[in-house]
Structure formats: structure tokens, C-alpha cells
Amino acid sequence: MGILDGQVAVVTGASRGIGRAIATAFLEQGAKVAFNGRDQSSADDFVSSLDDAGDVWFCQGSVLITADIEALIDGAVEQFGHIDILVNNAGGSSALQPVVELDEAAWEEDLRWNLTSTFLATKFALKHMLAQQSGTVINISSVEGKIGTPSMAAYAAAKHGVNGFTKSVAAEVGRSGITVNALCPGLILTDAVMTGGPGLAESLGMTFDELVDNVFKAKTLTGELNTAEQVAAMSVFLASPAGRGITGSQISIDGGTAPY
């Protein structure tokens, strides 16, 4: 028996990284999980690692494409009958440059990847949650949604937007039994960070190790980076009965980096 028995969760971008950790934690607590991602092989690897693949449904697609997001939400309902939890996890940045060098197309892609996708998935999922008068929406934001780091203006703007969106939607649906919160992790060394991080480090004139130690670790109160499993544990808490009294919040999981 798990604390999420009988619930259905949709997690965007759960083939790897933070999304995979969240989906795994949900499954361990008894939920069924629908997820999407662009890479079929990563999804296959995840599903093959599970004891009961019948509790998981994968919908290949990108959160950059509106139709793919809608297909994920509608497919989850068709597959499992309803949606109780939405985790807007998919996101990232392809625009790790100083503003004066930032291409407009890269700026727009970061906004769509992180903010517009969150809006669309939430909109589609809420139609089902409002009908059943219950639900949980968890938006994976970032510590960059509370602070700012050089060469991350597009990503920070998008994540600040996610935090504002979270508060507004929470106010709209709070009387309908639906909670909406954002989680704001600090740097987590996922595959995506290990791939894109060296470019950010180069733009700041340092090595990747120097970026991790002298920028991200140095900003924390603990001197340590966070883990995907810590974000997953908080996601489980928010989706559980114990988390029902929390909504409209932006919860930091960042080692004390953010000032609020």
C-alpha cells in the first residue's frame, strides 16, 4: 500500500533526470504514471527498469508542440480513466548566453520550453480536474525563478514566469479542490546539465568544475548540491493528503540559495 494508491499522475519529460525520479517515486507509492519525452530509447530504458510496466504509459512527443501535450493528457485519461496529478517537469535552456549575444529565436524557445508548455499542460489537465473537483499540479521551476545568474536570462525569465503562473492558477482553482505549487530546485547534475553546463561555464570564462564549485555550490548554505530524489520526495508529499493544505507556494529545494 502506498500513499498515492489509486491516483493517476502525468509527468512531462520523465524519461530521465528529475522527471524520471519523480515518476519512480510516484510508482513506488502506488500511483499509475503517464509520461512523455522525445527519446523513445530513454523511455524504453525507464520502463524496462520497472517491476510492473502495466502501471506506466509513455507518449512520445515534445512539450514544444501543443498537439503533443494535448495527446499526453488525453491519452492518460483514455489509458487510466482520470488524472489526479500533473507534474510540469519538462524544461531546460538552449540560450545560455549573455543578453547581448542572445538570439531572439533561442529566447522564444526557452519561454515555450519552460513557461508556455506549463501553461498548456495545466490548461488541458485542469479540464479534467475541475470536472472531478480534485487534483494536484506541481510545476518544476528553479532557484533561477527567484534569483538570477549571468548568461541565464531567458531561463530565469521563464522560471520567474512559472512561479507567477503558479500563484495565479492556485487562486483560480483553490475552491475546486485543486492545489497548485512550484518546486524550485538548485543545480542538480542531471544528464542535461552535464551536457549543457560546459557551454555556460565557457560563457562565464571558467571550467565546468569551477562553475559548480564557485558559483552554484558557493551560493548554498550547505555547500552541497541537491538531488533529483529530494525533488521527487517533495513531489510525493505535495500529492499526498499531507500536502493538501499547501497551494500557491514556490518551495525552494536549493540548499538555502534563494533569499525567500
Distance between the termini: 36 Å
Uncertain runs are none
Share of helix among residues?
40-55%
Beta strand %: 5-15%
Question: What is the overall pLDDT average?
Answer: 93
Give me the oligomer status: single chain
State the fourth-level CATH superfamily of the largest domain. NAD(P)-binding Rossmann-like Domain
| Alpha-beta content class | alpha/beta
- Order of SSEs, N→C? EHEHEHEHEHEHHHE
**How many domains is the backbone divided into?**
2
**Helix count from the secondary structure assignment:** 8
CATH fold annotation of the largest domain: Rossmann fold
CA-based gyration radius: 17 Å
Question: SSE layout and pairings?
Answer:
Layout: E1 8-11, H1 17-28, E2 32-37, H2 40-48, E3 56-60, H3 66-80, E4 85-88, H4 104-132, E5 135-140, H5 153-173, E6 178-185, H6 191-203, H7 208-219, H8 228-239, E7 250-253
Parallel strand pairs: 1-2, 1-4, 2-3, 4-5, 5-6, 6-7
Helix pairs in contact: 1-8, 3-4, 4-5, 6-7
Descriptive terms for the model:
7-stranded parallel sheet; single chain; Rossmann fold; 8 helices; 2 domains; 260 residues; alpha/beta; 14% strand
Textual characterization of the structure:
The protein has helices spanning 17-28, 40-48, 66-80, 104-132, 153-173, 191-203, 208-219, 228-239, and strands spanning 8-11, 32-37, 56-60, 85-88, 135-140, 178-185, 250-253. By secondary structure, the protein is an alpha/beta fold. The protein has 2 domains: 8-186 and 227-250, Rossmann fold, CATH 3.40.50; 189-225, no CATH class. Helix 1 crosses helix 8, helix 3 (66-80) packs parallel to helix 4 and helix 4 (104-132) packs parallel to helix 5 (153-173). The model has no long low-confidence stretch (mean pLDDT 93).
